[in-house]
Amino acid sequence: MGLFDRFRQGLKKTAQLLNTDVRDLFKREGRLVDDAFLDELFEVLIKMDLGVQAAQQIVEEVRQTHRARVVQLTDVTATIKEKLKQLLAQPGEPIQLAPEGLTVIMVCGVNGSGKTTSIAKLAKLFRSQGKQVVLGAADTFRAAAVEQLAIWAERLGVDIVTGEQGSDPASVAHRAVAAALEKGADVCIVDTAGRLQTQQNLMQQLTKIHRVIGKQVEGAPHEVLLVLDATTGQHGISQAKHFTDAVHCTGIVLAKLDGTAKGGVVVPIRQQVGLPVKFVGVGETADDLVPFDPDSFVDALFEDVEAEPSAAGQSR
Ligand SMILES: Nc1nc2c(ncn2[C@@H]2O[C@H](COP(=O)(O)OP(=O)(O)OP(=O)(O)O)[C@@H](O)[C@H]2O)c(=O)[nH]1
Ligand SMILES: [Mg+2]
């Protein structure tokens, strides 16, 4: 499956909502772009969690492009898509690898956001590229957490370094990186326990892990991925800012995109957190990780709306 199809799969719920709502704007043949129309459009954009800022920017673009004209649905979606692609544009490269030797990736986020599953997906991706991977189970809070990662490691055929429950996560991270260096592995991915951005001591623990890894390998961690749960919508944004303050995050993995109609949330995340969205999660298996590409993402989002424009008026 290409990127476009994989986004389509992940965006089913969001696209469905968008489809219904946008079509509702165009019950008759065409529609005059006046204030009433622009207000309704604004509501639709807000409902898909695009955020106020982006919704305003898009409405403004539609106003300037089409004002006082009678337009068809596809005229408006074309304008929205172009603006969205522009808003989502970001520098390429999904993962920053070390120029040579070991790449260390640290993964953090609030409880249950999808960290461990995303690590399994990343490990599978690296394996498919022929890279040797070592996982560090630095979530020592719960025995079950270590077990969960260990099961993935076995399934994927990658090495894992674990620690006793309650042991210092930074020391597990340290041992994982040391093991990866000794094996001459290509990538070491360190899992961390979920935590709230308000838990000062736990946030400091992240800083410590970061610092310890940095002493072992120059430039490490090369990526600090913040895993956000798409189903929580815009709540993830303030979390993201706090995490970025505590440990310098380098990118976002937006997990569970498949589970929400709020897929538009990727836009305010991009705009307000100021980090690139590197991957999105579109399911629970190790294959359900898609490198984020704004153009394919936006095209997939509007595919259904644009597919049968003539059916809009007839079906209602
Ligand atoms: N549908 C769907 N479910 C996902 C996705 N990513 C993770 N999940 C599910 O979300 C739940 C939590 O995922 P975990 O990977 O354990 O989350 P975590 O952040 O490691 O959780 P803690 O370690 O407890 O903080 C699991 O049931 C996963 O299967 C995704 O992209 N789509
Ligand atoms: Mg976990």
Quick summary of this structure?
By secondary structure, this protein is α/β, with parallel strands linked by helices. The chain folds into 2 domains: 3-91 and 297-314, Four Helix Bundle (Hemerythrin (Met), subunit A), CATH 1.20.120; 103-291, P-loop containing nucleotide triphosphate hydrolases (Rossmann fold).
CATH level-3 fold name of the largest domain: Rossmann fold
Low-confidence stretches: 310-316
Overall pLDDT score: 92
The level 1 CATH classification of the largest domain is Alpha Beta
Whole-number total of structural domains: 2
Q: Tally the helices: what do you get?
A: 13
Bound molecules: guanosine-5'-triphosphate, magnesium ion
The secondary-structure element order is: HHEHHEHEHEHEHEHEHEHEEHH
Largest beta sheet: strand ordering: 5-4-6-3-7-8-9-10
Cα distance, first to last residue? 34 Å
Per CATH, which architecture of the largest domain?
Answer: 3-Layer(aba) Sandwich
Largest sheet: 8 strands, mixed
Structural class comes to: alpha/beta
Radius of gyration computed on alpha carbons: 22 Å
Strand content: 5-15%
Oligomer class: single chain
Shape: elongated
How many strand units? 10
The portion of residues assigned to helices is 40-55%
Could you describe the 3D structure shown?
The radius of gyration is 22 Å and the shape is elongated. The model is unreliable at 310-316 (pLDDT under 50). Helix 1 packs across helix 12, helix 5 (73-88) runs antiparallel to helix 12 (294-307) and helix 6 (115-128) runs parallel beside helix 7 (143-156). The two termini are 34 Å apart. It has 2 domains: 3-91 and 297-314, SRP54, nucleotide-binding domain (Four Helix Bundle (Hemerythrin (Met), subunit A)); 103-291, P-loop containing nucleotide triphosphate hydrolases (Rossmann fold). Helices cover 52% and strands 14% of the residues. The protein is of the alpha/beta class. The strands form 2 sheets. Strands 5-4-6-3-7-8-9-10 form an 8-stranded mixed β-sheet, sandwiched between helices. The protein has a two-stranded antiparallel sheet with strand order 1-2. The structure holds guanosine-5'-triphosphate and magnesium ion. The site of magnesium ion has 5 residues, from helix 6.
